[in-house]
Amino acid sequence: MRALRILLIIVVILGGLFVVVDRVAVHFAEGEAADKLKSTENLASTPDVDIKGFPFLTQVAGGSLDDVEVKIKDYEAATGKPGKTIRIDDLKADMKGVEFSGDYSSATADTATGTATVSYAELLKTAKAEPTEVAPGVTARVVGLSDGGNGKIKVKVEGTVSSLGIKQTVSVLSSVSVVNNKVEVHADSLPQLGAAAIAENRIREITDFQQAIDQLPGGIELDKVQAAPDGVEITVKGSDVKLAG
């Protein structure tokens, strides 16, 4: 019995040491991965990397991690226009089946899903903020975006009738969707600006617009989008997503 007690004590001690070593190793690996991702994606700040699953060391021995979560506070995404970017807030991606090279210089996830937010202030930069003629003597521009409820965006349009010196502000509810990796805003109904007869295609040049969001980390792409109180909430997805290398 005494020998059995000693054996059990040794097992408990070794098990405790293994857990400590495992947690130290995963913490070190998370830091190294975060630094590598910051360098690869030219991020302004270091992202958070959370390697899930236990034990970590057996996953490393197998050359694959089950689940890795990456959080990036602010990310400047490409817009398809030279020198122009759009800020994405709180980009979070959950990577499954992450395989890495023997020297840990590269890592690729089988699949990735995640979420992100684009504020209305950022999205407004895409809309036509400069007065544009939509009918003889009538100009219009978008002056505000906000949450319209039920997944809609409220688009505030300012119209000016120059001959009368009248300004009129109206709001329309718009649907938002993902089309060809772009956030597309499309008015459900068109605003009435004074008594002027305005062709639908002319007013839609103001109310409807698209924002490309390209070159997201690892090659993930837009999946779905909906309006929310502080901006549009986007879901992203990808396969064969490169975390590094």
From TrEMBL:
It holds the Pfam family LmeA. This is DUF2993 domain-containing protein.
